[in-house]
Amino acid sequence: MPKTTTVNSLVDICFNFTHSSFRTDEEDVLERAVNVGVNTMMVTGSDIDESARCIMLAERYPEYLYASAGVHPHLAKDWNISSLDILRDLAGHEKIVAIGETGLDYNRNFSPRDIQKRVFEQQVKLACELQLPLFLHCREAHEDFMEILRTYRGDLTHVVAHCFTGNANELEDYLGLDLHIGITGWICDERRGHHLHELIGKIPANRLMIETDAPYLLPRDLRAHPKARRNEPAFLPHILDTVAECLGKPAELVAQQTTQTAYDFYNL
Question: Are strands 38-43 and 134-139 parallel, antiparallel or unpaired?
């Protein structure tokens, strides 16, 4: 475990707890997180079946977990005539606090772009209908992403650009639409994430949230990498320390601010 700041309460806004790597040690993973102050975790849905599993996990560990329900752009090709109604039903569960993960990904194009846009727009409309926050993914699709968001932003509540790794112009566009910004361990990667050290200061305190995106995006600069190189919520304080250092603020203050922002965002 890395040496990190001890805090009383942190919120991990993206925890892919349905991933198979967590099935053998669920309780240990949560215990490690809580022991370092990560008391609230958002289990992220990426398709219809997975969103249902998110609910099951949040019911199993209700003191720590909430969940989102959505279809990731990689899986948009699996959307069918029943998907919207099923997603609407799932979103009615008391543990569902956001629609997502949804958005656009033109980097890998696992789903055709026209299908991605259609499925994304339907989920945006659902968030408008249900007045739930939106949890969003965008990769190499900024213009189409912004076009859809601009169309519906006035009818949406809170919206977060999850795992922000973009440039200054993209950040400016997001903040111009009053989006929240999620920062992952990407900021700890000196090869790919160093530009975030300067950009993060442009994010207002009431728009900044932090996340692990576990089991993905293990912070590159952890002193002792876990054997399986699996990221988990217990490493969120390490990300917090990097964010605080970049902002020139005490980690305890950034912890307080990002936690309050997350609670306000999700209406907890």
Answer: unpaired
DSSP 77: G
Closest-CA residue to 40 (of 68, 17, 64, 62): 64
| Closest CA relative to residue 18, chosen from 231, 215, 229, 227 | 215
Report the pLDDT averaged over residues 188-201.
Answer: 90
Identify the bridge partners of residue 42 per DSSP, sorted by sequence position. 66
Contact at 8 Å (CB) between 99 and 68?
Answer: yes
Cα gap 46→176, rounded to integer Å: 27
Q: Which of 100, 92, 98 is nearest to 122 (CA)?
A: 100
**Inter-CA distances, 38 with 47, 127, 130, 194, 254, Å:** 26, 27, 28, 25, 14
pTM attached to this predicted model: 0.95
| pLDDT per position as a tens digit, 81-129 | 999 999 999 999 999 999 999 999 999 899 999 999 999 999 999 999 9
CB 100 within 8 A of CB 135: yes
- The CA–CA distances, whole Å, from 149 to 60, 99, 121, 253 equal 34, 14, 9, 31
Residue 50, token pair as written in the block:
């997975």
Per residue in 48-79, pLDDT (tens digit) is 999 999 999 999 999 999 999 999 999 999 99
State how far the Cα of 249 lies from the Cα of 238, in Å rounded to an integer.
15
Structure tokens at 104: 């656009």
CB 97 within 8 A of CB 67: yes
CA distance 61 to 26: 10
